[in-house]
Write a structure and sequence with these properties.
The structure is a homodimer of 211-residue chains.
Chain A: H1 6-12, H2 22-42, H3 48-55, H4 59-65, H5 69-92, H6 97-114, H7 116-122, H8 131-150, H9 162-171, E1 175-176, E2 179-180, H10 185-197
Antiparallel strand pairs in A: 1-2
Helix pairs in contact in A: 1-2, 1-5, 2-3, 2-5, 5-6, 5-8, 6-7, 6-8, 6-9, 6-10, 9-10
The first copy, chain A, binds a DNA duplex (30 and 30 nucleotides) through residues 18, 20-24, 27, 47-49, 52, 57-64, 68-69.
Amino acid sequence: MSQPSSAVDRLLVDESGRRPRADARRNLERLVEAARIAVAEVGVGVSAHAIADRAGVGVGTFYRRIPSLQVLLETVLDEILDEIANVADRALEDPDPWHGLCVFAAAYVRLRAESCGVSEALGGACGDALAQRLTELRGRIRRLVERAQAAGAMRTDIIWQDVPFLLAAAATGEHTLGMQASDKQWERNLHIILDGLRPTPPSTLPGAAPA
Amino acid sequence: MSQPSSAVDRLLVDESGRRPRADARRNLERLVEAARIAVAEVGVGVSAHAIADRAGVGVGTFYRRIPSLQVLLETVLDEILDEIANVADRALEDPDPWHGLCVFAAAYVRLRAESCGVSEALGGACGDALAQRLTELRGRIRRLVERAQAAGAMRTDIIWQDVPFLLAAAATGEHTLGMQASDKQWERNLHIILDGLRPTPPSTLPGAAPA
DNA sequence: CGACAACCGGACAAGTTCTGTCCGGTTAAG
DNA sequence: CTTAACCGGACAGAACTTGTCCGGTTGTCG
């Protein structure tokens, strides 16, 4: 938010090594921050004009430093995916496997619930650009789940591939049947889902395992 | 699918009481069926041209009998919402309240998972057009949940408003982290969620109740 | 303080995609 | 066979989109 924002720096190191003017940097920071908010509220389909408007600058200013809309969106999303990966790494070091899984799950679902664009990106809406990140994250979730199962803290009739789908599920649904979800509906959803993951399986799971 | 389709009839009873030509009726049936499939695959954002193409007719034919794209979409969705309401009514007559809830939940989640457009409509994407239906459905779900709780078959720290969100959640997520969900992933999700709804609450639920 | 390069904003071009209309050619039905 | 109903798709026009360009402004440095 208020730190230098590596995204801004990444976008700033172009052309001759001259230091950019102060207003140029300020506007770029505004644009990146506006992009973050817009992506969260509107999703990856947000337009360049919409971001420029939010930042309080013209589109000309947008395209002066930003090569293309797509580059900006990928930069912003890549940063968030990095953050998620870090949370997963820390969770893997938790001495209590189940607690580690819960901590990661809460962070993951929160990020998805609070940013429409992050959900879309994790769902694969950004094509190959973020595919590498997604693969890495998948591996970390797999390890988190299998570690919890090995410790006897989780049902073993559930396979690790179910977990990403369940976490994605917990984060969705801002509106249903005309009801507006509270800010924390995702916490309630996640809580119930995690309860459903605990041992003592009440019955066998139907359907084939996902590919 | 192959029955006369009340939607077709509803669209056909216009202008002078003359019986329409056979080809006219055939094309309208094709259009309605194409709309159903297109709404399921693409969602309520599908275009009139896309539906006409799927039906194998021109757009002129589309607009000859159909007043507007919106009318067609609402007609198709209204029919499905009717079906859901009927399932709920039957579930309310089940002598076992928990079994009734499970049967309804499975049908509801299946319909949502199999039709992108139904999910959007239940999420409120169609504005006021379907608001009445949504309200009715809400009441039925409330009764199903409270009946199950009164019978002691379901945790009482969950409120009925949680259930529509949980069911919506179970149905979402065709892709996550680069993985393609199996046809029946929704069954696995729902199964785990229903397990989480059973009595013996492991802990208290965080967050405020939704409005 | 003055000069000037860097910067700014938004009108604009060019493209896409949408809904809905219109009309010349075709076909079902009495 | 006649004729009204029907068909298809070109078309109009509106509402978006991304990205460019240029006249006016401003930060920065000698």
